[in-house]
TrEMBL record:
This is Small ribosomal subunit protein bS16. Residues 126-137 have a biased composition (Basic and acidic residues). Belongs to the bacterial ribosomal protein bS16 family. Residues 117-137 are annotated as: Disordered. Keywords: Ribonucleoprotein, Ribosomal protein. It comes from the Bacteria. One of its GO terms (biological process) is translation. Gene3D superfamilies: 3.30.1320.10. The gene is rpsP. One of its GO terms (cellular component) is cytoplasm.
Amino acid sequence: MATKIRLKRMGKKFYAFYRVVISDSRNKRGGKSIEEIGLYDPNKQPSLIQIDSERVQYWLGVGAQPTEPVLRLLTITGDWQKFKGLEGAEGTLKTPEDGPDAAARIEAIDAQAQKLKAAHSADAAKTAKADEQSQAE
């Protein structure tokens, strides 16, 4: 039986996330899988990638072949380099920044937009007043 490490699509229309699964190569994309070994959510910033490194190493060791998208994910997490014995086994996985929550960031951006809007309207009022004075003369 030829096994593949592939993505299984989940979620709603236009808001998909994926599970990284081990399945028979003859099964459908969303069909029955042997084992679930991770998650991939491209909707978050930065994208959420959670893969069980031990299970990936096991399945690669017994001959499971990753698909191209999964191979890119394994390269990001460093699991592919670890399996092949290459440099860069720590990977390039980015984690979300620690800092103000989303509501606070939205509030700050909103406040900045209001300041810009007020400055723009003040400039527009000055130019309108200057135009009126030049027409009155």
